[in-house]
Amino acid sequence: MKVLVVDSGGRGHAIAWQFQNDPGVKEVICAPGNAGIALEIRCENARTDEEILELAKKEKVDLVFIGPESPLTRGIVNLLLEEKIPVVGPVKRASILEGSKAYTKLLCREIGVPVAEFEVFEDPQKAKDYIAYVKYPVVVKADGLAQGKGSIVCSDEKEAYHAIDRLMVEKIFDEAGQKVVIEKRLFGIEISFFIFTDGESIAPMPVAQDYKRAYDNDEGLNTGGMGAYSPHRLEGEKLNRLVCEKVAMPLIRGFAEKEGVQYKGILYCGLMLVEDTPYLLEANVRLGDPEAEVILPRLKTPLSDISLQIINGVLSDKKVEWSQDYYCDVVAAVGRTRQIKDGKSKGWYHGYPGRYGKGYPISGIENVENPACKIFFAGVNNSPEKGLITDGGRVLHVVGKGKTLQEARDIAYRGIEKIHFEGIRYRKDIGKE
Ligand SMILES: Nc1ncnc2c1ncn2[C@@H]1O[C@H](COP(=O)(O)OP(=O)(O)O)[C@@H](O)[C@H]1O
Ligand SMILES: [Mg+2]
Prior knowledge:
Layout: E1 2-7, H1 10-20, E2 27-32, E3 42-43, H2 49-58, E4 63-66, H3 69-74, H4 76-82, E5 87-88, H5 96-99, H6 101-111, E6 118-121, H7 124-134, E7 138-142, E8 151-153, H8 157-169, E9 180-184, E10 189-197, E11 202-204, E12 209-215, E13 219-230, H9 237-259, E14 265-274, E15 277-284, H10 291-295, H11 303-312, E16 326-334, E17 337-341, E18 344-349, E19 373-377, E20 380-383, E21 387-390, E22 394-402, H12 405-416, E23 424-425
Parallel strand pairs: 1-2, 1-4, 2-3, 4-5
Antiparallel strand pairs: 6-9, 7-8, 7-9, 10-11, 10-14, 12-13, 13-16, 14-15, 16-22, 16-23, 17-18, 19-22, 20-21
Helix pairs in contact: 7-8
């Protein structure tokens, strides 16, 4: 089988690598991929949905696997299916579960999936009146896609008003903030729960702990993710049953009943466990990044088999097996660097998730020789003079594998210490319990 993975970051590398080691797969192509992925997997520079479709046709691929949310919400799956190309991912209509937080919250309310008390607003003044009326702390969320930055957790009314102004008046996320969801702030244990689904059945994935804040001890700004590990202490049959019964199954079934469209692919439930109730904070229609980097390596069942089961509607959780090995992912990001313009220093960039410099040569990759240490590449590019260079805020993921979390974490940190680029910065507390 020939597989095309659509993605350009660390998650895409992890997906493509999984297929690369899949006995049922002869060839893997990643589009557009990046210069780091290209060290071991063929990357093709197809970026638009039309270019991806052309590539899939030209290469006669047997399967396409979509990594990120944007092509899904644009309807790339519909485009590929029209040409009879098998693809893993929800169709455009079903991708609304991530594309509109208001839609998903209203659906949950209708079908009885636990969600925090909420209301939806299109008028900033009415939104503020509601905030004043409810009195409890709220979270203000842009309805549409905002690269995971559209939810503002507020401690008091003043912060919430400010959030309304930023999303609805200043429109910092453009049209994504046209509508907002205002929901009660919950306090509990937050987990990300991923499932495979063929639209009828569900196969849960194991759980990963991710680290969203920029600095150690969960300080600093929110980021796309600074690291992750799996297995998680809460994962297991009990949690699977709870989340599948209360959230995932009703959501998949409720959506199909309401819309007459099946949800197929991967569903990511962002949950807050409050006592024994799993509240759905949000739904995403794809794998998380960096969660994919520590969950997928635990997959013992070939991903090509699962993909075909999803497409053919014959998925069963009995057929999906996971290892109990630990994986720990430490993300190397670009921290503080000098801002250079026309050869002169102009001060400093603070670094990811704020502004950061680009184009720094990456060295030491070849010194990471431990087979239990794997590097997944994210923001990297190739320069004819300098070789591999940084090209984003999150540059690479160093993933250690071990029999215990401690071992996996030691291996990841020993690996990342060998890598260098200007401004390299990573959290020192990933997997530290
Ligand atoms: N109702 C809530 N109560 C407490 N924290 C929340 C709530 N909703 C969201 N959050 C926090 O904000 C983060 C981002 O919100 P989320 O709904 O996942 O949107 P997005 O990932 O698109 O920004 C969550 O990971 C969680 O930590
Ligand atoms: Mg989220």
